Amino acid sequence: MSEENRLGDYLRARRELVTPADMGLPAHGIRRVPGLRREEVAMLAGISSDYYLRLEQGRDRNPSAQVLDALARVLRLDDTATAYLHQLAAPRPRARRRPSRRPSVPPATAQLLESIGLPAFVTDRTLDVIAVNPLASALVPSVRVGENRLRSFFLDPAERALHADWSRTAAQCVAVFRRRLGSDVDDPRVVRLVGELSLASAEFRKVWARHDVRPVVDKPIRMNHPQVGELSLTLSKLDVDGPDGLMLAAYHAAPGTGDAERLALLASLTTGSARRPADAPGARTAHGSPGTR
Fold it and tell me: Which Pfam family would be a valid example here (predicted)?
């Protein structure tokens, strides 16, 4: 995303995803652009073509809320994407000082990871894993402290093989990542991560270029696990209180199902292999030690 024209980049990307047929327009002749033409968006939104062109080119960055809502309707944005559009158009706050330290997991959250009895881990705002319990690493081996979930999804073949719906799951991960960042994408770590993945993965480039955004909601996950077989789970995410944008994620199965039984089997295998005579397993954190007991 261009640092100088985030609103225009977003409008252009979403315009290319809407077809004339979506809006009841005839599609006569050869079209040189995917999706709607600029003048078609302007006409449907009730604004001038010149004004819309200025918005896309970044020459006008202060559209009214009414104009943004009209554009959201034409571009077929849902509530989350509409809120994101308004966020991109809002005046940017003064650049905040970024902490030089890595965020730390609150003691209560580390204790929860250890005692929850479910595969669970904590990520920061760039989706770096900063704490994980043994069951989460047994379920998804790439979920390790220091690994990045986006990097694993797009660059780790084992991660791809694990997910039965890899394309959908990876796209959702990118959309949630973009939504959590909002307009604050100039964090050097974000810039480096997006640049690395854009160079290394054509699939990431394609998904990132769509500018999809999704809220953080429970989502179904289907896996082909090498030890316990097929699993249909739900991945739930909760914000962790504090200034660092941490998120706790946990996989769980519907009670009384075969998936719950297979997840329990994995837990028993993990406990048996991880326990040592003088050391019970605990959640690992970015500091390399078990969480607070």
Answer: MLTR_LBD
